[in-house]
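Notes from hallway chat w/ T.B., transcribed later so I don't forget. T.B. wanted the structure written out for a chain they're using in a teaching module, and asked if we could keep both sequence and structure tokens in one place. Agreed to drop them here.
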Amino acid sequence: VVMLQGALISINAGNQLLASQMAMVSTFLPAFLLSGFIFAIENMPTVLQYITLVVPARYYVALSRAIFLKGITPLLLWTQVAALLAILLVLLRLTLARSRKLGLLP
């Protein structure tokens, strides 16, 4: 998921500096602040709770907590896996469409 996000950023950015800044703002900050790792999602304002639904790190944190702390198998956490798959498919579609528009792909 993050690699596709990085590919989409690098396609749209004009130079390396802009790409690195866009990557920092779109990956690190949301992953750190909106994933539920530092602050509980339930305690966030309602608007931020909805925004966290599109942050892939939210689902990684939920999977990691369930597996390492509770001992649950990944198969029982199919909702998190399905959400990550949905985000992956959306990012793949956006990346391929943008690449074709710029002539990077046939």
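Follow-up for T.B.: The radius of gyration is 16 Å. Might be a good example for the class.
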